[in-house]
């Protein structure tokens, strides 16, 4: 592959993609406004000679054009977004601006600058709470939050740009991604880092709803692999793929596994369900396997074990500091 821009590259998923691409000899430029991304996620990348960081927004057309032209960017991994259902409900206007206008801006500038391909992050939330399982890419959109709606809009936008401008656009519908560097401190933190940090600290583990709701949890290494295969392969232009493990896990089962792995005495406490959340989710990955060569290596137990180990080590380093 040639030079690659990663938007949102200081975030959880983006930083892991950047690290792997650098180990494979790629030239990587990260663009991040650091509104949710963190410099600590990418500090170690400074050791690579093929790395550059630019602080800025995907809403800045001039900055985007300057980066794409000066760095001779051929491929883009688009991870920048307001990525929380709860945050999108609290501030839908900001979500629309970043997720839709920002993505449209990126597609427009990339098309004008002659970029070859953009692989962009979509979400399983576009399926909504339809009862049919597993979720397949051919199912209609049924978004239940501004976040989900913004991701559906991006997929429609990608189809238009791919048709009108010939740029290669590939969407990845992430299910519930987890792993190292996921932020447990935010008010909108994902369930796994929140549960792990609570368990390690011996604090109560909060479950929103009855705990019987299910999710399809996919480990960060498998998500990174899917992104790299989508960047380097030859999928159909305008295509969208589920990136999931393909197995349902209930939230109460998840809590029990984390309590076991952390050897914690934390209690589980139940809270009201969140608005905009779906009841059950699991993805079909047949298309991703056929067209991308996507192959899942981490089941929930293996992925959780590595994630708990990372959070333990991270907590120990912070205490030592």
Topology record:
Blueprint: E1 4-7, H1 12-23, E2 28-32, E3 51-55, H2 61-70, E4 75-78, H3 85-90, H4 92-112, E5 117-123, H5 146-165, E6 168-174, E7 176-178, H6 191-201, E8 205-208, E9 214-215, E10 217-219, H7 220-232, E11 240-243, E12 249-250, H8 251-262, E13 268-271, H9 286-292, H10 300-320
Parallel strand pairs: 1-2, 1-4, 2-3, 4-5, 5-6, 6-11, 7-10, 8-13
Antiparallel strand pairs: 9-12
Strand order of the largest sheet: 3-2-1-4-5-6-11
What's the number of extended β-strand segments? 13
Radius of gyration: 19 Å
Helix segment tally: 10
Strand % is 15-25%
Question: Which CATH C-level class of the largest domain is it?
Answer: Alpha Beta
Relevant CATH superfamily of the largest domain:
NAD(P)-binding Rossmann-like Domain
Tell me, rounded to a whole number, the average pLDDT: 93
Order of helices and strands, N to C?
Answer: EHEEHEHHEHEEHEEEHEEHEHH
Quickly count the domains: 2
Query: Describe the biggest sheet?
Result: 7 strands, parallel
- Low-confidence runs of at least 5 consecutive residues: none
CATH architecture of the largest domain: 3-Layer(aba) Sandwich
State the shape. globular
Structural class: alpha/beta
Ends distance: 39 Å
Helix share bin: 40-55%
CATH fold node name of the largest domain: Rossmann fold
């Amino acid at each position: 592959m040639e030079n690659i821009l990663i938007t949102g590259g200081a975030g959880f998923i983006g930083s892991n993609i950047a690290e792997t691409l650098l180990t494979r000899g790629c030239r990587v430029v990260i663009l991040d406004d650091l509104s949710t991304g963190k410099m600590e996620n990418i500090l170690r990348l400074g050791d690579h000679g093929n790395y550059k960081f630019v602080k800025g927004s995907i809403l800045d057309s001039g900055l985007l054009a300057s980066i794409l032209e000066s760095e001779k960017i051929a491929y883009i991994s688009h991870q920048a977004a307001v990525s929380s259902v709860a945050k999108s409900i609290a501030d839908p206007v900001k979500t629309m601006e970043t997720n839709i206008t920002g993505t449209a801006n990126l597609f427009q500038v990339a098309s004008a600058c002659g970029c070859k391909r953009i692989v962009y992050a979509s979400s399983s939330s576009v399926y909504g709470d339809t009862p049919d399982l597993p979720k397949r890419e051919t199912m209609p959109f049924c978004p239940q939050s501004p976040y989900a709606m913004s991701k559906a809009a991006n997929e429609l936008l990608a189809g238009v740009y791919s048709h009108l401008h010939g740029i290669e656009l590939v969407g990845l519908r992430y299910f519930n991604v987890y792993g190292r560097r996921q932020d447990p401190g935010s008010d909108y933190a994902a369930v796994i880092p929140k549960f792990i940090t609570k368990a390690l600290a011996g604090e109560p583990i909060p479950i929103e709803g009855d705990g019987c709701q299910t999710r399809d949890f996919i480990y960060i290494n498998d998500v990174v692999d899917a992104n790299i295969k989508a960047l380097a392969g030859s999928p159909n232009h305008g295509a969208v793929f589920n990136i999931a493990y393909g197995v349902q896990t209930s939230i109460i089962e998840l809590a029990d596994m984390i309590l076991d792995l952390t050897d914690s005495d934390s209690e589980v406490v139940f809270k009201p369900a969140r608005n905009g959340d779906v009841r059950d989710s699991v993805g079909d990955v047949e298309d991703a396997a056929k067209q991308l060569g996507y192959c899942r290596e981490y089941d929930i137990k293996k992925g959780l074990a590595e994630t708990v180990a990372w959070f333990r080590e991270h907590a120990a380093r912070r205490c030592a500091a």
